[in-house]
Amino acid sequence: MRAPEMSRIIKLDRLPDGAMRIEADEDERRRLAGRFGLPAVHELVATIRLTREGEAIAAAGNLTARFEQACAVSGEAFANTVEEPVALRFVPAYSHADTGDEEEEIELSEDELDEVPYEGQSFDLGEAIAQSFGLAVDPYARGPEADIAREDNGLDKPETGGAFAALAALRKD
After folding, report:
1. With a threshold of 0.85, does the pTM exceed it?
2. Spatial distance between the Cα atoms of 64 and 21, rounded to a whole number of angstroms
């Protein structure tokens, strides 16, 4: 098991009062860029408030990031940002215990989609923030030169553009 790039362990018996600020340092940003296939992460900050809900801990706040990513069309790096609300629930792992029936289809309610199971007396808020960042990055983002790249490569023409034209080009090779 790999070590998280941005770990912030929160002990259940010592939840902070008020909002807390989590900011990735230079080494963490470099490692997160590698994890998510980004040329660079310049800033990653989350402001989170933790609230106890029985055995669960609700985490709500905001995530902001400045980073470089490759354009889905041209492949060239461009500056991008993320500003996302964060809403997670850390729940005891036994509440997600496996029923043993691997064939059984499990349907999650909307409230269960952002539940993060924890074991023991702590959870890793930093890793949860890192995962939230990874999910917020649009893998198909288009940079400012995307339209020029599409035009230069003939991707806007019906006869040379689109998925079927790309497949046909592969078949010719």
Report:
1. no
2. 11
